[in-house]
Every structure is written in C-alpha cells, then in structure tokens.
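Dear colleagues,

As part of the handover before I leave the project, I'm documenting each prediction I ran so the next person doesn't have to rerun anything. This entry is a single chain, and its sequence is reproduced below.
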Amino acid sequence: MSVMEQADIQALLPHRYPFLLVDRVLELDPDRRIVGIKNVTINEPFFQGHFPGRPVMPGVLILEAMAQVGGLLAFKSMGQSKRPVVYLTGVDGAKFRKPVVPGDRLRFEIDVVKKRAPFWKMQGKAFVETELVCEAEVTAMVTEEEAPT
C-alpha cells in the first residue's frame, strides 16, 4: 500500500520528466522518516550514454532521487498549503556500494538527523532488494518562496 502515488508526488515536487526520480512513497512519518521507490527501467534517457552496452544508473542521479524523497518528507512535515522550494545544499559521506542497472527497484529510506529552519539534515540509504547500494547524508534548505506549478 502506498502513502503517495505519482499524482501526489507531482503536486509537491517541481521536477518533471526526465528529472522526476520518485515513483511512489510507501511510508511517511512526518518530521522523522520516509520510504520512497524509484523503478529503474532501460527506458531512462541517461542509459543511452551511461554506458552503451552496459547501462549503469549514474551515482549522482541516485543521490538526486534520494534528495527528492527527502524533499517530500520536508514538504509533508511542514503542513503548508503552498509548495515551498527545497534546495539541496550538501551531500556528505556518499558511498556507492553496487551498480544500479535496468530492472532494479531502488528503495530509499530517509531519516531526519536534525532540522533547524530552514535547514534539514537527513541520512539516506538506497537499497535494491535487501542490498545497500548507496548511502549519504544530505542537507537541504526549505525556502519561503512558492515553487512554480
């Protein structure tokens, strides 16, 4: 069972194809934790050049997906009627443990480490099945401005 489907995600995140990297949210505990999903398919535009004949999801896009899931946690925790803009301000301790390839289902588990307006610090882990493929601490700034629709 999902907490947020694609329409709910698009109502909050300003990202669109080909840069919307969250397909579904499975769990949400405002101010604490979120679990989101990205289904990786061969149709992703980045696979055309990364790498021909041996497609691997770029690590920076795994981190971006992680940040987008974290952004959803911040949005839902704030309980505002308008959609603020969230900027990624830092990534620390990023480690890539295993390549992510077409057919994988990335499961992002994001936990709040600390928040002090307007900054959020979150610990993120990405799994394929039960195997940890990426981890990082991400910091984001939530602005007062409203995101374009």
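The first strand starts at residue 24 and ends at 29. The two ends are 27 Å apart (CA to CA).

All the best with the project,
I.
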